[in-house]
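Record passed on here:
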Amino acid sequence: MKHRRIIQHILSAVILTIAFQATAQRNLMDGIVYLSTGSVISTADSLGIEIPVKQKPLRIVTNPYTARQKVRDKIQPQQIDSIVLWNPTAPERPHTFEYIPRYGWCWLLEHGNHISVYAFSPKGYTISGNGGIWARKKLDIIVRKGDTTYLFSKPEKFADNKFRQQVAEIVSDDAGLVRMIMQSSSRRDKILRMLNLYSPNK
């Protein structure tokens, strides 16, 4: 009888370990998927959403965070308008992802009336237990203005005058924002995030 209980404890530990590893590998989060058809998929229906990466389909998982979890759907990026994800331990800190065909799944940093600013990591993203998010390894910043996209590398570096001029050209018809950019001494990423203030002919 004693041996049977020991075996049961061992099996339970193995099952829990497998479930944890599967969840970690899939990087599952709570959230909402907004499809281009206008319908939505929500984890309120006992589903899990895998954080998207590169140009891969989005995976929706049933029975998340258990040993019985499995992929229910694989949705092509072109069928998705946007995704809002959060760690179950920090629902007050959601993060939005959108798909930009030339690059892949991007994390939305700023959304203005005319310009949106994104972070792009080919290796994907991690949302921590406190809700914070970071990119895995290399990170670029993408600026999208209408149908035109601009890619900026090494966003952690401090901006020099050449970089400021390059950014200012994107919003050359907003004199106030051009002044702010040219007078800034911040890092590249902070200057790029200012572009959400863009208001042409202002």
